[in-house]
């Protein structure tokens, strides 16, 4: 309550200052203020990785990237702390890794938005609405994908690698579009799913086969690659699909 009273007092002071000294504001008036005080920072989860201010300002890229951001480090100084506003170079961006939303030492728990795993400086860049929305979409898509594949609670198993780019297993398994390097393996398997990477020259696709016999194709190729996918599916003994997910629009 005290913070909201003080905030509104400052708003009225600013409105009066503008009317008195800013050309064009002579007849302006205050319509409304925010309903309540917004909180920039509270508790954050401890994840498999904590994004730092150095990651942000260094435009760091991650193999398990789930989102991108370009907002710089914006620390609002508290008592005894200086405020900081540092911008990235034009055209630069950083990536948020999957490890920043996987809560350490907990099964089956992802976080997104302002509670993701980051240092104070890293969080000062990641907490904005656009980045929070992108990370939230990635977390939701991954969770939905794991549920649909019957692999809930087996995130570590589904993301097993041996050279596999984790982005492919995370983003494409979840059925979201993502740009990624070509896979370095042909297939990986867990107790619940087998994932085949289909490179047909004209495009890439991912075939997911579940333990109960269902087949889902994530098609990341252009239309001209469809016949190539069909040939690969026949070679794997697949004559029908339970679902087809187009991960890129062409």
Question: SSE order, as H and E?
Answer: HHEEEEHHHHEEEEHE
Structural class: alpha+beta
Largest sheet, in brief, is: 5 strands, mixed
Taking all Cα atoms into account, the compactness measure Rg is 24 Å
Mean pLDDT: 77
Helix content: 25-40%
User: What general outline do the C-alpha atoms trace?
Assistant: elongated
User: How many distinct helices?
Assistant: 7
The residue ranges in which pLDDT falls below 50 over 5 or more consecutive positions are 156-185
What distance lies between the first and last C-alpha atoms, to the nearest angstrom? Answer: 53 Å
Percent strand:
15-25%
SS elements, strand count: 9
Strand neighbour order, sheet with most strands: 5-6-7-8-9
Please give the structural blueprint:
Blueprint: H1 2-21, H2 53-57, E1 65-69, E2 73-75, E3 84-86, E4 94-97, H3 120-126, H4 129-148, H5 155-158, H6 166-172, E5 187-189, E6 193-199, E7 204-210, E8 215-219, H7 226-235, E9 243-246
Parallel strand pairs: 8-9
Antiparallel strand pairs: 1-4, 2-3, 5-6, 6-7, 7-8
């Amino acid at each position: 309550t005290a913070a909201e009273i003080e905030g509104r007092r400052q708003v009225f002071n600013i409105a009066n200052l503008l009317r008195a000294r800013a050309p064009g504001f002579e007849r302006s008036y205050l319509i409304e203020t925010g309903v309540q005080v917004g909180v920039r920072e509270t508790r954050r989860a401890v994840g498999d990785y904590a994004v730092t201010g150095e990651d942000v300002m260094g435009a760091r890229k991650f193999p398990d990237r789930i989102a991108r951001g370009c907002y710089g480090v914006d620390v609002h100084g508290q008592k005894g702390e200086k405020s900081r506003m540092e911008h990235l170079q034009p055209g630069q961006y950083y990536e948020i890794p999957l490890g920043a939303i996987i809560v350490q030492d907990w099964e089956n728990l992802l976080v997104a938005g302002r509670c993701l795993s980051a240092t104070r400086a890293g969080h000062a860049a990641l907490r904005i609405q656009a980045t929070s929305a992108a990370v939230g979409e990635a977390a939701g898509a991954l969770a939905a994908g794991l549920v649909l594949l019957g692999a809930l609670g087996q995130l570590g198993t589904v993301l097993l690698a041996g050279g596999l780019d984790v982005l492919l297993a995370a983003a494409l398994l979840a059925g979201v579009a993502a740009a990624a390097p070509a896979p370095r393996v042909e297939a990986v398997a867990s107790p619940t799913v087998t994932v085949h990477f289909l490179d047909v020259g004209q495009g890439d696709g991912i075939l997911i086969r579940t333990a109960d016999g269902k087949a889902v194709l994530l098609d990341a190729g252009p239309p001209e690659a469809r016949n190539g996918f069909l040939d690969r599916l026949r070679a794997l003994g697949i004559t029908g699909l339970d679902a087809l997910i187009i991960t890129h629009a062409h």
